[in-house]
Fold this sequence. Notes:
Largest sheet: none
Number of helices: 17
Strand content: under 5%
Helix content: over 70%
Number of strands: 0
Distance between the termini: 24 Å
Amino acid sequence: MPLLKRAVSAFRGEDISVLEEVRWLWVACHAAIVVWDHETWHTLSARQIQLARDAGALAVLPMALTSLAAALLWPGDFAGAAALIAEAETLTEATGSQLPPYSALALAAWQGREAEVRVLIDVNVNGVVRRGEGMGLANMQWATAALYNGLGRYEDALAAAQQAAEHPQELWSTLVLPELIEAAARSGKTAGAADALQQLSETARASGTEWALGTEACSRALLTDGEAAESLYREAISRLGHSRLQVALARARLLYGEWLRRQGRRLDAREQLRSAHEVFTAFGMRGFAERTRVELNATGEHTRKRIAETHDDLTPAGGADLPPGGERRHQRRDRVTAVHHPRKRLSTTSTRCSAN
């Protein structure tokens, strides 16, 4: 981790040529995610976009747009992210690129749009497997886990997160492990959660950022009882509150509010849940907003659904019609598992990216 942090910091300096930056900044952006450095992730993504535009490097620009779009999601700039995703899709279609829809999946998953997530995966998974892009497949599994955690379908979320976590060489553990731990805690299937927490703690403490330490505290709280759990939840909210990561903060407030409600502290729970609900509603995060609304109602405070109707009229790239929802539970589980099975044809060391 220290070596990787130094490498990421080096890209923020002025000793790297423009040619090297255009070629390698996408790697540095991904490394910034691994070391929990959101500020650098955002800065380097924006720089790569500018360099690619100046150089007319249309083959590189979609990856840079996708990276910055994902970085914008964490502070809650969903509109800005959607605009970048649309531009990336236009360029990808025009240049014939085969870039997986990393950010489009993240946006759809966090906004609880299950049908769109399903279409994006179905349309792209075969190509990702054929090209040996392990990171693309792991991203699909992470997005599936985030979607189902928001929708309160924790067993489905756990299945997807476990599949993604089986291949840490794909370098998505920063995102995958918190989803796995939350799904395990909420489904009551915590057998492997302690190992996941240990992995998460090692990287988070080596990183030392507020994002890392706040996430680690929240994940640890999920597997802790009594006063120690409350202390960890408070630490998580304090640390994430000092960052720009509004989505992570709102999710920590939701988890703390759920814990407080289960302790019989309804008034305290309402304070956390109201704050979380306001953020989820403003960002159009329907699944998480509904999950929070149900918890608020359980405290005796009745809250009506009031999610902004965003992206309802959008279809995935290519204009595919979204299929109807309402599928049976076993069908949903089959689809979650199917995202993982193609990985058997991937090399365990395949981390190639379409930018190559």
